[in-house]
Recover the amino acids of this structure.
């Protein structure tokens, strides 16, 4: 849906055109669902939350500000709903990430040959590996990386959603990726060796 | 190679398209001579490459469940709105194209006075005797008696104070559970579609020219006015760039907020 089509559908939906709202649901449901799925880890929770988010969006259409994107509005609601759920279930870990040090350095030894997968099959396989790797990341790293990659929200938008500074978003995503690479290299996903020259093995403590 | 830590964050930012031009240039320059960072960039890019088809398909029940609820809500609003619309219609509505607007104007706006109430008065008095009508019927009263009281300044055509409870419970703008689709449903293209419903207008700053000359009621709540204008004027306002929002207020009244 183009931005214009989106705004037109929203206006129609505000006036009670349910079909117009359905268009909005269909074009956004995949990302909303996947965001919820990756944040909660549960298909049932993801389904419940996604439905809740869309219905909430419908009943609050009047308060949607046209300047921002409808999808971002949905992602925000999704994120908040997931965090609320995780908190309720006691699965919300507030990990102190301040133990990250800046004076590590790493080395990558690159073998000959291809580094990253090509072709659809290999990319699908990589995707599975990434999902596995993500699940092994510390909660806050996983969450922010998922946010960024599934929703495509900008650092600014993520910062506003989570309530942290843009700089923190940037560095946290960077750390998350570092962590993910380490995991994947250990699993042999990437044919490189990735070594840290000094400092601790893991810079995030649970 | 051991300096590459500093580039790691840049590489991450690059993949997300969040670098400044300067940062981008710096990174790309470094990549030319650093295979480690080039490799990391390639790896990050492949990790971030989440195209749509890699995402899980949501179950059919997602959309189905949502739309069941949405259609129910839309139906409810329609029915409720229709009923209310009808009620208001029999009691307060004038000719199809009339809307009453309540106007909030910044205090600095000069000369809000009574326009020619003659033209609007007949429309209101078309109503049955028992129905309440805004005091436009008596333009002079509008200015002279701001003490009508907040929103309750309605008078019956015969001059006695109306029971405005039904007209305007004066609750806060409707909760979000009742979007204004109801009020709009009779509209055919007109921005407000408020045909005959009372509406409230907020204007900050200068009163738009097209509103001058319409008879207005003034309330005692410093800066609150009621004004009755036809639907075309409302459309014009929208075209002038005034933002129109329609909120259904408690069902007996429609509220249109114009904001520039």
């Amino acid at each position: 849906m183009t931005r214009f089509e989106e705004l037109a559908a929203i206006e129609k939906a505000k006036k009670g055109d349910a079909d117009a709202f359905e268009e909005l649901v269909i074009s956004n449901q995949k990302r909303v669902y996947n965001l919820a799925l990756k944040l909660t880890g549960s298909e049932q929770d993801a389904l419940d939350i996604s439905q809740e988010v869309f219905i909430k969006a419908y009943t609050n259409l009047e308060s949607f500000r046209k300047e921002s994107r409808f999808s971002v509005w949905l992602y925000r609601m999704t994120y908040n709903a997931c965090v609320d759920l995780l908190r309720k279930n006691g699965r919300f870990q507030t990990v102190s990430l301040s133990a990250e040090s800046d004076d590590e350095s790493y080395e990558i030894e690159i073998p000959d040959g291809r580094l990253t997968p090509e072709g659809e099959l290999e990319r699908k396989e990589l995707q599975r590996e990434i999902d596995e790797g993500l699940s092994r990341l510390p909660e806050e790293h996983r969450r922010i990386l998922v946010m960024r990659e599934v929703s495509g929200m900008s650092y600014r938008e993520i910062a506003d959603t989570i309530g942290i500074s843009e700089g923190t978003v940037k560095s946290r995503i960077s750390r998350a990726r570092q962590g993910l690479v380490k995991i994947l290299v250990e699993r042999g996903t990437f044919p490189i060796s990735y070594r840290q020259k000094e400092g601790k093995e893991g810079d995030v403590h649970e | 190679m051991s300096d590459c830590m500093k580039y790691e964050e840049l590489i991450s930012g690059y993949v997300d398209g969040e670098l400044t031009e300067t940062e981008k240039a710096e990174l790309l320059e470094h990549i030319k001579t650093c295979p480690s960072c080039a490799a990391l960039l390639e790896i990050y890019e492949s990790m971030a490459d989440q195209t749509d088809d890699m995402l899980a398909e949501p179950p059919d029940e997602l959309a189905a469940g949502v739309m069941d609820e949405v259609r129910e809500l839309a139906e409810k609003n329609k029915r409720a709105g229709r009923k209310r619309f009808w009620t208001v219609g029999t009691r307060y509505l004038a000719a199809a194209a009339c809307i009453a607007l309540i106007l909030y104007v910044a205090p600095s706006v000069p000369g809000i006075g009574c326009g020619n109430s003659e033209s609007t008065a007949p429309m209101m008095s078309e109503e049955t005797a028992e129905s309440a009508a805004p005091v436009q019927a008596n333009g002079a009263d509008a200015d002279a008696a701001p003490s009508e009281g907040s929103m309750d300044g309605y008078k019956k055509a015969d001059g006695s104070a109306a029971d405005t409870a039904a007209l305007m419970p004066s609750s806060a703008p409707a909760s979000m559970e009742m979007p204004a689709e109801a009020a709009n449903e009779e509209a055919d293209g007109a921005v407000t579609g408020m045909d005959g419903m009372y509406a409230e207008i907020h204007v900050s700053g200068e009163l738009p020219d097209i509103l001058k000359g319409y008879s207005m009621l003034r309330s005692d709540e410093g800066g609150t006015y009621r004004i009755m204008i036809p639907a075309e004027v409302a459309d014009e306002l929208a075209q002038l760039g005034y933002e129109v929002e329609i909120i259904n207020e408690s069902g007996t009244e429609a509220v249109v907020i114009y904001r520039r």
About this structure: Confidence is low (pLDDT under 50) at residues 96-103, 199-206 of chain A. Chain A touches chain B through 61 residues (CB under 8 Å). The two ends of chain A are 41 Å apart (CA to CA).
